[in-house]
Amino acid sequence: MTRAGKRAVIIGAAAAAAAVGVLAVPAQASSWSSSLSNVYNDFESRRWTDTGGSTTIKFTTCKSGGTQAVGVMLRKDTVGPDPKYTNASFTKCFDYTGATSTGNWDDHGSGNYYFVVNYGSNNYAPTSVSSLTVYY
After folding, report:
1. In angstroms, rounded to a whole number, what is the distance separating the alpha carbons of residues 44 and 94?
2. Where does residue 27 rank: exposed (0-12), middle (13-18), buried (19+ CB within 10 A)?
3. What does the pLDDT read at residue 14?
4. Nearest 5°: CA angle at 49, between 44 and 52?
5. Could you tell me which of 31, 38, 45, 32 has the C-alpha nearest to residue 116?
6. Per-residue pLDDT of the chain (136 residues; tens, 9 = 90+)
7. What was the pLDDT predicted at 25?
8. Mapped to the 3 state alphabet, what secondary structure does the chain carry?
9. Closest to 95 (Cα-Cα) out of 130, 61, 58, 131
10. Contact in structure between 43 and 118 (CB atoms under 8 Å)
11. Degrees, nearest 5: CA angle 5-9-12
12. Cα–Cα dist 10/111, whole Å
């Protein structure tokens, strides 16, 4: 192969690699999964460290002795009062086994985050979630 031919092959391969990188869909940086068993109002999840970006929380198969809704509030662990972000009402996860509810929160910067179940609610019945996943 001539020198010009080798150069064309190298440039073509580099262009193809660059095109694949441009077309790739970026995934969220990290996630964790768990479940909830008979948790009451103001239950706090584990903390996770986020370097920035949106947060998605997904509950699958919810059960409660009270209302067929569970409030999920994202909070940032800070010194002093922790900021409260939008409180999402998850209801679809109660519809049938395997049903899911999903909440999305915008980027609130890097830091340690957690969610609170039924923050400040008057619903005193325990809530269970067979599967939950946090994407951040």
Report:
1. 21
2. exposed
3. 43
4. 115
5. 45
6. 554 544 444 444 444 444 434 334 345 579 999 999 999 999 999 999 999 999 999 999 999 988 899 999 999 999 999 999 999 999 999 999 999 999 999 999 999 999 999 999 988 899 999 999 999 9
7. 38
8. CCHHHHHHHHHHHHHHHHHHHHHCCCCCCCEEEEEEEEECCCEECCCEEECCCCEEEEEEEEEECCCCCEEEEEEEECCCCCCEEEEEEECHHHCCCCCEEEEEECCCCCEEEEEEECCCCCCCCCEEEEEEEEEC
9. 61
10. yes
11. 135
12. 43
Q: What is d(CA 121, CA 62) in angstroms, rounded to the nearest whole number?
A: 17
State phi, psi for 52 to the nearest 5 degrees. Answer: 120, 150
Closest CA to 89 of 74, 113, 72, 105: 72
Q: Could you tell me which of 86, 121, 77, 118 has the C-alpha nearest to residue 104?
A: 86
Structure tokens at 28: 């969220």
Pair of tokens at residue 46: 């584990």
